[in-house]
Amino acid sequence: MVLNQLFRQSSLRERRLQFLRTHLDAFEVEPVFPLPIYEEVLLQMEGICGVESTCQVVGNQLFAGCFDVSDIGTDWRLSIDRQLQFFLGKVESRVGIKFNCNLLEQFVGIHRGSSQILDASLGLHRYPHLKDSFVKICFHLDPKTDPGELVKTAMAIDGSCYSLELTQVLLKDTFIIAFNLFFDGRSEIELYPGAPGGKHGEQGHWGQDLTLYIRKHFGKKVNDLFSVSNIVAASFSRAKAEPILHFSFTNIKEIPNSFRFNNLGNRIYSFCESQDCIAYAIVGATEKNLESSRLEHFYFSYNRYDSGNATLVFD
Length: 315
Known about the structure:
By secondary structure, the chain is α+β, with helices and mostly antiparallel strands. The protein has one domain (about 1-305). It has ten helices and ten strands. A ten-stranded antiparallel barrel has the order 1-2-3-4-5-6-7-8-9-10, surrounded by nine helices. It is globular and about 50 Å long. The chain starts with a helix and ends in a 10-residue tail after the last strand.
């Protein structure tokens, strides 16, 4: 029994690394610092993991060194205390910098006893210039519970200020609170309200406020995409002039029916279509870019579980 468990854990770890390295090879990303340290962290994770790989396309430029890994089933406090501290410590010892963890530490200190946080993901978003790169910590919240107190804390410590209408959406429907720790010492908080897309219809109360907000404030293109996707989310932060809208699809083959990509986007889609065990894929862009005849500025993410199994957030 013990040997079988050890063998399974070893297989899961190797599969995570395979996911990451296959992505790097496909998009010709060099495994530069601190990607090798990030791989060390993946090997420390003991639960089932979801590996989300992201490509950002800016015209004819492709940035494909972005990863977020969720250690599912592991207490989120352990993820913060062990994997995150290990990673930050090793990075800081190499490059002589100090991440600004003040916002993260305040949030964790206030809500360390929270049972509303399902798990935490640890991400590395590596761009060509280290100063533009950041570590991303996402707290995934139980959509069946009220996230209001967690969101209020995040907004208070960040000094965020949104309209009363949008604030109500964030208080009711946020299901991810993210902390971005930049290598140049900057830090920011992102709030992600979400809702079931038209593929699922209503799922209890979660997403009702965001659904109404999108119907009221966004145009036909966005609402059409809402109706054909599985999950819709929007990311808000002080650093963004307008939100990024994220449309999730469990059937990747449906994506070309809704999006017309430039050549880089077609390359990303073709690669993803050739891969097995993709749980879902996400296309993200601002409304302005979505309304273009062809997507030139966008994010394309896809998620693979090392166990081969996945569960939607509201199941």
